[in-house]
Amino acid sequence: MTGPADGVAAYPAVDEVIRAMEGPGQGHYLHIGAVLELDGPVPELAAVREHVRGRLPFLPLLALSVAGDLGDAGDFGDGGPDLDRHVRELRVERREAAYDALLNAAAPCPRRPWGVWLVHGYAENRFLLCYRGHHGLHDGVSLAWVMQRLFRTKPPAGALPSAGGPFAPTLPARVGAHARNALESVRLFLPAPRRPLLDGPREGRRVLSAVTVPVGRLRTAAADLGCSVLDIHLSALSYAAQRADTTGWTREGPRARGIGLPIALGPMGSATTACPAYPGNRFSVAVVDVPWDEADLRHRARLLSRRTARYKDPALRWAKGDALVRLDARRTKSLSERVFARCGVQTTVLTQTADFGFDGCRALSVTGLNCLPAHFPYQPVLTTWRSQATCAFTADAAVPAARELAEYWREALDLLAPEAAAPAPSIGR
């Protein structure tokens, strides 16, 4: 498989499947984004629109449409996005209500489904700036790139970053990686778990439950246990899933569902230097088996690390991409349905490194907003930025523990890193 050119959708069948999920009655919420909380006087909406207008030349991705032109980055030849529609204002009385509203707001423009919201009214000299875009437009890696181009304190300069050349493993590495990927796929043809994830129907209204902790806590626990921050997050998430489980899906024995983990297929790069500006989605989803019966969360993290280590192999990621690009939309949908049927929750970890701010106001925090496919009752994203790590759950309001999910995750972190346990600010409690 050769590498896709910059500005070209690498896996058009994946994008087509995601776009098709938006149909009426399917119950999918397919928008992802991030929220900055800033300290300072609330700006005028006109100033935010003018700021976004000044950054648009560095964001050709936002000129695209999910109606079918994701294969061509093009330019703003049709006059560009109407910023009166794309940049909105929201007044709220409570901070919690702001995040819930951002998860339920309709896309400002169906053809170009992205938006920027200025949110204020919940506290003096505090406001939020949110970017949110449809998953058919970009994935989480591109989201990080969009955020740093939109809201970093120093304006972008110079040419857009390039994706660089494609990764090309040796022939023996290719053969071995394809074999490992095929073996991993065998489980998708075994009987799927039967227990539902919810006792009843979804409500269709989303709420956010989030908590922020020092990122050093996760890194210290990971170093102590010989694993990664991802493994600590997965262990804590599995604990939260058990606490919130009302149907017994985490207790289904060998057939129990795992955790869905998006695997970046590339090109890879830093969010501040070489992150490529690509449209569409470049990931596959792996099912990570969870040792639900292991009561010791620290040992559970070690076991999880053995299962996630394989996805660090660039040759395996290449093989997954090479297999995925050969599938048409029908087969891609069939594959994704098999994967989702064997997951109880899906999560990702995003790293933001930019110095965020707006018109002299400094950013205090960065909170990710995850999508929520109808397959899952909740879906978290862990965002690391500077010294912070924020775990934010997008949850359907029908989940009994929707407001408690982040607190459950924090409880688990206290068990994983007990010597560093401390109160943490949260949203949703």
Describe this structure in words.
With 429 residues, this protein is an alpha+beta fold. 31% of the residues lie in helices and 21% in strands. It contains twelve helices and 14 strands. It has helices spanning 12-20, 45-55, 83-86, 95-104, 140-151, 171-185, 215-225, 229-244, 297-308, 314-324, 329-340, 405-416, and strands spanning 31-39, 87-91, 114-120, 126-134, 206-214, 258-264, 283-288, 343-346, 348-352, 357-358, 361-369, 378-385, 388-396, 426-427. The strands form three sheets. It has a six-stranded mixed sheet with strand order 2-3-4-1-11-10. A five-stranded mixed sheet has the order 9-12-13-5-14, sandwiched between helices. Strands 7-6-8 form a three-stranded mixed sheet, sandwiched between helices. Strand 3 and strand 4 form a beta hairpin. The radius of gyration is 21 Å and the shape is globular. The model is unreliable at 68-77 and 268-275 (pLDDT under 50).
